[in-house]
Each structure stands twice: as C-alpha cells, then as structure tokens.
Amino acid sequence: MEDLMTTSFETVNSADGTLIAFDRTGEGAPVILAGGAFNDRTTVAGLAATLAPDFTVIAYDRRGRGGSGAGAVYSVEREVEDLAALIDHVGGSAAVFGHSSGAVLGLEAAARGVAMTRLAVYEPPYVVDDSRPRPAADLFDRVRALIADGDRDGAAELFLVEGTNTPAEIVKGMRDDAFWAWFAGLAHTLPYDLALCGPGNVLPADRLAKISVPTLVMDGGESDAWMRAGARAVAETIPGARYATVEGQDHGVLRQPDVLRGLLTEFLG
C-alpha cells in the first residue's frame, strides 16, 4: 500500500509573503512535521512515510531552508505565521509534530493560539537542571557573527558545542565526516533555532501554561539527562499533557521513524 503513496511538492505564502515549500503525502487528517536544527523537509520524510498510511502528512522546509524563502527579517513570530499558513492551507486545523527546536516552534504556536487539533513534541531543548551548562546569553550573537563572516563551519561547531552540549572533541571529529557539508549548508539557519529557544534555553513556563491543545511530550530512554529533564518539565507545565519515553532511542529518533509510529498514530488519531 505504501508503494502507492504519492508525494506532491507544493508551496504556500506565509503572512509576510515568504514562500514556504512542503511535501504532501498520504490521506486522512492532516499532520504537519516541523524539524529542528540542521533539518529540512528531507530529514522528516522518513516519519512522513511512516505516518502516511493513516494521515495526510505535510513535511515542510522551515524558512531559510530547502525550497522555502528566508524573508527579510527573522523573528519567532514569522515562523509561527509559517506554521499557521500551512495549517490554513490544509483546511484550517491540523495536528503538529515537532522535533527539538521544531518542538519549541510547535509549543510557541500552540501558546499563541494557532489552530491545531493535537500537538506532539520530541525533546524540546530547554535546560531546566544543572546536568549541563546553560547556553550563554550571547550565543545567538556569536553564531550570527560567524555566519556574517562567512565561517559556516565555525558557526555549526559553536552551535553544537555550546548550544547542544556536544563535546568539542566529538564535533572536531564530525568535521572530518562527509555529512559535515550538510551541517555547514544549513548553518545560516542556526540563529533561527537559537531565537526560538531564547537566551539560555529557559523554559517559558508562563507561555506553556497557556497551551490548551492536547499535548504529548516525548523523550528517548537513551537521551542526555538534560534533554529528558526538559521534556518532563514541559509535560508538567502544560495542563493535562501526556509524557512518554521512547525506550532505546536518543535525540536522533528521526533516523528510526518507525519507533514513533504506534505512539503518534494513537495520539494524533
């Protein structure tokens, strides 16, 4: 059956006129997938294929990535408008799944009253305990300065070391891998992810407490302690939210999309 699924490439204009590109797959109630840092519509395509037998899945390029425009000036509000434009385009309400900073985007949109039926988030990267240092408040400015200087490799490295708490020696090794070109290619969008998370990745408890959409918060059983603590805190802050751990998985769960199928089809259905 899945072999018969066709994927169509489409675009929609956001409120500020920026073109947002997406792939539509499957049939059924709409679900929109928002990836995190270093992600575009291709990195959520596996999850789209996994959900497509049960849903109409929208895998989109967040602004500045892939086929989407960047717009004149970035703000979190513009990204929320992008998500709202997609929801409008598919019929006025939809379920949303967000991974990492894409999870933060989903939470911010829900808190601002964007019309979604359900929201599922995986490891929004808020820092709520002292198991890792909080990202410095000026990380956004330093990453942006490196990009302005044309140092995309340096920007990606700084984001990984200070933003995601990846050990510096691991990142040095990553720079020798073929896939590093992908990271450098999306480095110009890292300030967007940092803006979404806010200075120091502080949990926005007041905003999260306003969310009235049924919400599922997930983490991986093998994920870093700080990410799991952040996910639990989000679940405890959103009224009535469900919390679930995907055993055997870490932050890279999108590489194993089938492990999310049962949880997401049950919750989003």
Automatic annotation (TrEMBL):
GO molecular function: triacylglycerol lipase activity
Domain AB hydrolase-1: 35-260
One record GO biological process: glycerolipid catabolic process
Pfam (any one): Abhydrolase_6
Keywords from the named record: Hydrolase
Protein name as it appears in the record: Alpha/beta hydrolase
Organism: Amycolatopsis alba DSM 44262
Source species taxonomy: Bacteria, Bacillati, Actinomycetota, Actinomycetes, Pseudonocardiales
